[in-house]
């Protein structure tokens, strides 16, 4: 019999209301022990809760959800109590004193939902993203994933693989009979369209872009106005600004949301070949490394000397002496703010094109890797090739779809996934 677990699921106290969730075979017994009775199923009831000695703990709303039609797939109870720290601590102490009950581990409620078939792995990943969503775009993508949008598609793909496999197996098993000769004429075209569809999914913007933000690196030589622009974009005095060359010696990163789009802005050490000390040289090397990994570089250095694809920015337009450019994408002053709003709007429009569309399912690294396996297996099939090899490639594609939804997996992977969740979820 599994343990019965409990935890506060409503966040850190104090608050007006706290929700303590109990899940497992003894959830009902726990309510009886604290409240003296079980409330009517799926209806909130006001109950006086007492500890083992009969002392009143709180007056709370209590809900009872028996059976498998619950969030975790097992008996579930909720206590909606006052949200003070002392109240929550007293109730948790009383629950912990009951036989067979223990505090939940991080993500254990959701893990039980997965193990009991209440959600698949893709939906669980979407729920994890929803809990950590900080921008509207992140929320919309996570809602789609947690609601099963990807799961429905993958289950459809799995059915199509099964149909193709059935056609191959029919020829292998009954190819010498009169009514079964060769693969249907539609087999090759169906397979080709299937492969194209998977490749289209693989080419979509990834979930990491939403989760981590559009990565913008501000780069150029010393005293080009990089830190001033960085502070203007993040709207904070995050970077130290002085007229001395080499003030910025390491990477300074700040995540922000602009227009509902997540960004990572990175300020870097000024790039120069001569005059840098040992510490500044390390900062310059790190600057070159983050430039190579950037989604976009704002180049404040000499025109044409930035990395390929960088935006030419003419900065410090308020200064009497500045580095003029013939065709910059933007002219601006981080100090006065002139031109910064136009740059910000341009960044938002550009980042939106690189992000999944609102509500569109976005694959994470694990899902992308498994879908790549399935696409590779289907792409390896030759309609006139060995049918045994074709059957094996179709089996490999089906296996990838199963693992994507959690039909097969390792404990290490599950531990890593559900470890992202907070206690109480």
TrEMBL record:
Location in or out of the cell: Cytoplasm
UniProt cross-references to SUPFAM superfamilies, sorted A to Z: Folate-binding domain, P-loop containing nucleoside triphosphate hydrolases, TrmE connector domain
CDD domains: trmE, TrmE_N
Keywords: Cytoplasm, GTP-binding, Hydrolase, Magnesium, Metal-binding, Nucleotide-binding, Potassium, tRNA processing
Top enzyme category: hydrolase
Annotated residues for binding of K(+): 223, 242, 244, 247
Protein residues bound to GTP: 223-228, 242-248, 267-270
Listed InterPro entries: G_TrmE, GTP-bd, GTP-bd_TrmE_N, GTPase_MnmE, MnmE_dom2, MnmE_helical, P-loop_NTPase, Small_GTP-bd
GO MF terms, alphabetically ordered: hydrolase activity
Entry's EC annotation: 3.6.-.-
Manner of cofactor binding, per the entry note: Binds 1 potassium ion per subunit.
Sequence positions that bind (6S)-5-formyl-5,6,7,8-tetrahydrofolate: 21, 78, 118, 425
Requisite cofactors: K(+)
Major location category of this protein: cytoplasm
Annotated positions binding Mg(2+): 227, 248
Segments forming domain TrmE-type G: 213-352
NCBIfam families noted in UniProt: PRK05291.1-3, small_GTP
Main function: Exhibits a very high intrinsic GTPase hydrolysis rate. Involved in the addition of a carboxymethylaminomethyl (cmnm) group at the wobble position (U34) of certain tRNAs, forming tRNA-cmnm(5)s(2)U34.
Family indicated by similarity: Belongs to the TRAFAC class TrmE-Era-EngA-EngB-Septin-like GTPase superfamily. TrmE GTPase family.
Subunit note: Homodimer. Heterotetramer of two MnmE and two MnmG subunits.
Name of the protein in question: tRNA modification GTPase MnmE
Organism: Novosphingobium humi
């Amino acid at each position: 019999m599994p343990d019965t677990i409990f935890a506060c699921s409503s966040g850190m106290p104090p608050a007006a209301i706290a929700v303590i969730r109990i899940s497992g075979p003894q959830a009902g017994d726990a309510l009886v022990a604290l409240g003296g009775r079980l409330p009517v199923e799926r209806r909130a009831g006001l109950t006086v809760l007492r500890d083992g000695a009969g002392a009143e703990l709180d007056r709370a709303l209590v809900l009872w959800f028996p059976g498998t039609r619950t969030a975790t797939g097992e008996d579930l109870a909720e206590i909606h109590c006052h949200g003070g720290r002392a109240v929550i601590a007293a109730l948790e102490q009383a629950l912990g004193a009951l036989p067979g009950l223990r505090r939940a581990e991080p993500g254990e409620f959701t893990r039980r939902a997965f193990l009991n078939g209440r959600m698949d792995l893709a939906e669980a990943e979407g729920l994890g993203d929803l809990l950590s969503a900080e921008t509207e775009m992140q929320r919309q993508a996570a809602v789609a994933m947690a609601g099963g949008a990807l799961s429905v598609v993958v289950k459809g793909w799995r059915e199509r693989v099964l149909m193709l496999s059935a056609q191959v197996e029919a020829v292998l098993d009954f190819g010498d009979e009169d009514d079964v000769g060769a693969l249907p004429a539609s087999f090759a075209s169906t397979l080709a369209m299937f492969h194209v569809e998977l490749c289209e999914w693989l080419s979509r913007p990834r979930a990491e872009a939403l989760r981590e933000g559009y990565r913008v690196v501000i780069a150029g030589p010393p005293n080009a106005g990089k830190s001033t622009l960085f502070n203007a974009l993040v709207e904070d005095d995050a970077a130290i600004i002085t007229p001395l060359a080499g003030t910025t010696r390491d990477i300074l990163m700040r995540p922000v949301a602009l227009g509902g789009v997540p960004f990572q802005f990175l300020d870097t050490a000024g790039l120069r070949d001569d005059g840098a000390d040992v510490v500044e040289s390390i900062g310059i090397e790190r600057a070159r490394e983050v430039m190579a990994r950037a989604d976009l570089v704002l180049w404040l250095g000499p025109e044409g000397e930035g990395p390929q694809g960088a935006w030419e920015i003419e900065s410090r337009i308020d200064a009497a002496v500045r580095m003029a450019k013939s065709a910059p994408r933007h002219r601006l002053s981080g100090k006065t703010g002139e031109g910064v709003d136009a740059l910000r709007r341009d960044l938002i429009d550009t980042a939106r094109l690189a992000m999944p569309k609102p509500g569109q399912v976005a694959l994470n690294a694990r899902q992308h890797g498994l879908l790549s396996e399935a696409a590779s297996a289907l792409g390896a099939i030759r309609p006139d090739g060995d049918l045994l090899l074709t059957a094996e490639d179709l089996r490999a594609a089906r296996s990838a779809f199963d693992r994507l939804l959690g039909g097969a997996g390792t404990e290490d992977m599950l531990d890593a996934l559900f470890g992202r969740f907070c206690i109480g979820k």
